[in-house]
Amino acid sequence: MFNPLLNIVSSAYWQENSHPQNCSKQILSWLLDETSLTKKLEQQCEKFTVEVKQQLNTNANESVLSLLFPKSEQILVREVFLHCDGVANIFAQTEIPYHTLADKQKNLANIGSESLGKFLFKDKTLQRGKIEIAEFLIGSSVHELCDSLKQPCDHSLWARRSLFYIENKPLLVSEVFLPASGIYK
């Protein structure tokens, strides 16, 4: 069943290399960490799992997408929750242009409940672009998502995004740190 895509990429002001006023050093250390988030979460819990919310094909001109890819481009969008011990810690949305899914990368379209990070960080050609961060204020669509997960919160939530390149082919990964992630303590 198709659910509307969560508007995280185009509904926020994304900034790179900055230290926002109300972002603690603890939060910023997670946001700017260039290592595998999957690996980091696995070290923090007994059981790490990925729940696929949805995966669909659309055009780059979909209003909630990043606009980083040509409007005529077909895009595979994958939305998942990264769980630690059964609790959603991260909401991730990935935009993969069809031309990225050629050759060895075609398997990215069929990883199911496997972690995308495991595939990305194993690839020797992987390059990561700059990390951009965004703040979601109370009342945002991200907060509504948290309410639906029974994780209401009374503070801003933070996200990061970056382009990854595999054999010089791009994909965009955006990650929202949910209240249960523990970075807000």
TrEMBL record:
UniProt-listed Enzyme Commission number(s): 4.1.3.40
Enzyme class: lyase
GO molecular function, one term: chorismate lyase activity
UniProt binding sites for substrate: 78, 116, 175
Keywords recorded for this protein, A-Z: Cytoplasm, Lyase, Pyruvate, Ubiquinone biosynthesis
Enzymatic reactions: chorismate = 4-hydroxybenzoate + pyruvate
Main location: cytoplasm
Family matches, as Pfam families: Chor_lyase
Keyword Cytoplasm assigned: yes
Subcellular locations according to the entry: Cytoplasm
Coiled-coil features, chain-numbered ranges: none
Keyword rRNA processing: no
Annotated pathway: Cofactor biosynthesis; ubiquinone biosynthesis
Role of this protein: Removes the pyruvyl group from chorismate, with concomitant aromatization of the ring, to provide 4-hydroxybenzoate (4HB) for the ubiquinone pathway.
Family membership: Belongs to the UbiC family.
Name of protein: Probable chorismate pyruvate-lyase
Gene that produces this protein: ubiC
